[in-house]
Design brief:
The complex is a heterodimer of chains A (119) and B (167). By secondary structure, chain A is mainly alpha-helical. Chain A has four helices and no strands. Chain A has one domain. Chain A is 79% helix and 0% strand. In chain A, helix 1 runs antiparallel to helix 2 and helix 2 runs antiparallel to helix 3. Chain A is elongated. Helix content of chain B is 57%, strand content 11%. In chain B, helix 1 runs antiparallel to helix 2. The longest helix of chain B has 27 residues. The radius of gyration of chain B is 20 Å and the shape is elongated. The chains are: A mainly alpha (119), B mainly alpha (167).
């Protein structure tokens, strides 16, 4: 039984590591700031999620698993906020995405908020 | 009032999970901090349907598994596109309609978009969300309006026709 748990645990942790690596590789390889945001979101959803599920197999039905679930929930609620804040900071400093058409860039430009406005 | 009780219960559960001790002193300290937290939250007037959306618990039971499924699927798509050649990626900006009737619903929708890899919401205004998408597949998934409809259902709003969410 321990054997099966260990194998499951290692499978999930390895999967998580692979996704963290892919995300990290994307962060380095992609040229555009906004494209890099997408690579980073691989890490904070699947990368973190799979590693934590693997750790839960190690912990079993204990308080540790409950704490792992809580951490996971907090990451799932806060990481989109952080990603959104990064995107907003980039827009307000005139970093525009590398997209095909000028109309798409205009869509982004329109959302720029200056320091004085509160929207 | 229901929300005050729900907040106190949630905090109590949180304390017990994180501490795991049943010594009188520790439990007394826990009760004291819960009372203090609830009092501060009540003074700040943040215990409302936005700060503590307990009415979403039951509908959330169908929404969150669906969202998890979407996250898993788009993780695989985006990972493939990062490893694949340049043609797999097609960064684009699009505006999608957020049909939810209140700010909480639009926040849930915008956060769900960002949480799903391959799409990042960069702005919410006038009931529309400006989204940066990493590739055609993830952009199409959003254009179909399926997630919009699911969030409307979660919030108890009238569900828009799927496929009608394009700008």
């Amino acid at each position: 039984m321990d054997m099966i748990l260990d194998i499951a645990s290692w499978a999930f942790i390895s999967g998580g590591i692979i996704f963290c690596l892919i995300g990290g590789y994307g962060l380095i390889k992609l040229k555009d700031f906004y494209a890099r945001l997408h690579a980073a979101s691989l890490i904070d959803t699947f990368g973190v999620g799979l590693i934590f599920i693997g750790l839960m197999f190690q912990a079993g039905f204990t308080l540790v698993t409950a704490k792992l679930i809580l951490i996971l929930v907090f990451i799932f609620f806060t990481s989109p906020t952080a990603t959104h804040a990064l995107a907003r900071a980039a827009i307000n400093h005139d970093v525009l995405p590398d997209v095909d058409t000028e109309e798409e860039r205009d869509l982004v430009r329109q959302t720029k908020t200056t320091k004085s406005s509160t929207s | 009032m229901v929300q005050v009780l729900a907040l106190a219960t949630a905090l109590a559960g949180f304390w017990v999970l994180l501490s795991g001790y049943w010594l009188t002193l520790i439990v007394a300290l826990g009760v004291a901090s819960i009372v203090l937290c609830v009092f501060i939250a009540w003074r700040m007037d943040v215990i409302d349907h936005e700060g503590h959306p307990i009415h979403l618990t039951i509908p959330g039971l169908t929404y969150f598994p669906w969202l998890l499924k979407e996250i898993v699927l788009s993780n695989l798509t985006v990972a493939k596109a990062i490893l694949g050649d340049k043609n797999a990626r097609h960064p684009q900006v699009l505006r999608v309609k957020a049909s939810q009737s209140d700010a909480l619903g639009q926040t849930v929708y915008a956060n769900s978009i960002t949480l799903t890899p391959g799409t990042v919401s960069i702005s919410v205004d006038d009931g529309y969300i400006t989204v940066h998408a990493f590739m055609d597949e993830t952009a199409e998934g959003l254009r179909s309006g399926e997630m919009d409809a699911k969030v409307c259902k979660l919030m108890g709003d009238a569900t828009p026709l799927v496929g009608d969410a394009k700008t």
